[in-house]
Specification:
Blueprint: H1 3-17, E1 24-28, E2 40-46, E3 64-70, E4 73-79, H2 90-93, H3 95-102, E5 107-116, E6 126-134, H4 162-174, E7 179-186, H5 195-203, E8 208-210, H6 214-222, E9 226-236, H7 247-271
Parallel strand pairs: 1-4, 1-5, 5-9, 6-7, 7-8
Antiparallel strand pairs: 2-3, 3-4, 5-8, 6-9
The structure holds hypoxanthine.
Length: about 280
């Protein structure tokens, strides 16, 4: 089946199963899915039920879709994401974003666990993504362009919507929370980086490194969505501290900031402007 037909089939299936018209979409990273528990009367749809949807295979990624109201706004929340390193095609990784767009979602929030590159960062810090550097060569837009979503050569001058970043900082300030802002570097994984790679990324101007988010952001930017990216700094990049990295430690740190992370996101969603719907 052709790509667009698959996206439409999945979107039709989701529309039939949910009771709301979603306006904000969320894709949550490692250990950060708990926000889903805050949705009022959520409808749950396992990824395995949705036609053409792939399953999340990584620990800490539940692999289900939740639909309902969060901070009074109708949201579609993907609890667990698909990563390129799991062996999926980029089209599969960004499939949720395209489904959301077909369902009328024009606002996207993406979260992730990331390694800190900036020596001033500490595990447990939250970083708003200002911009990104894509170190993985494959693009989710490679191949025939899906003209219904956006142009062949799409602008990437401001994918992380400025007005939303301002709003996020205001929310953090109101909560007396420190919120960093920086450049997220997308590395392929699944190995963590070497100490030399971390030095290179720092020299390139990166503040954090991770293995996700950028494919979804490119696809959402192509489709003209407003985007916010939030990283939880779960560890310092390899070699910055004299210790090895493990997924367990990363999950433990994201658990520790969970409450703060949820509170900040809820406040951001609460104040998120719903009009104009699709403008940057
Ligand atoms: N590198 C890549 N991905 C990550 C890291 C890291 O240090 N921490 C959490 N996700």
């Amino acid at each position: 089946m052709e790509q667009l037909a698959q996206i439409n089939a999945a979107a039709t299936f989701i529309r039939k199963h949910i009771a709301i018209t979603p306006r904000i979409g969320l894709i949550l990273g490692s250990g950060l899915g708990a926000l889903g528990e805050q949705i009022e009367d959520p409808v749950r749809v396992p990824y395995t039920d949705i036609p053409h949807f792939k399953t999340a295979t990584v620990e800490g990624h539940a692999g289900q879709l939740l639909a309902g109201k969060l901070s009074g706004k109708p949201v579609l929340l993907f609890q667990g994401r698909l990563h390129y390193y799991e062996g999926y095609h980029m089209n599969d990784v960004v499939f949720p974003v395209r489904c959301m767009k077909v369902l009328g979602v024009n606002n996207l929030i993406v979260t992730n666990a990331a390694g800190g590159l900036d020596p001033a960062y500490r595990p447990g810090d939250l970083m708003l993504i200002k911009d990104h550097i894509k170190m993985v060569t494959d693009s989710p837009l490679r191949g025939p362009n899906l003209d219904t979503f956006g142009p062949r050569f799409n602008d990437m001058s401001a994918p992380y919507t400025r007005t939303i970043r301002t709003l996020a900082h205001k929310c953090a300030e109101d909560m007396n929370l420190s919120l960093k802002e920086g450049v997220y570097c997308y590395m392929p994984g699944p190995s963590y980086e070497t100490a030399s790679e971390i030095r290179m990324l720092r020299m390139l101007g990166g503040h954090a490194v991770g293995m996700s988010t950028v494919p979804e952001v490119i696809t959402a930017a192509h489709a003209g969505m407003r985007i916010m990216g939030l990283s939880c700094i779960t560890n310092m990049g390899t070699g910055i501290l004299d210790q090895p990295l493990s997924h367990e430690d990363i999950m433990t740190t994201s658990e520790q900031v969970r409450e703060t992370f949820i509170a900040l996101l809820k406040r951001i969603i609460d104040t998120w402007p719903m009009n104009p719907e699709s403008a940057q």
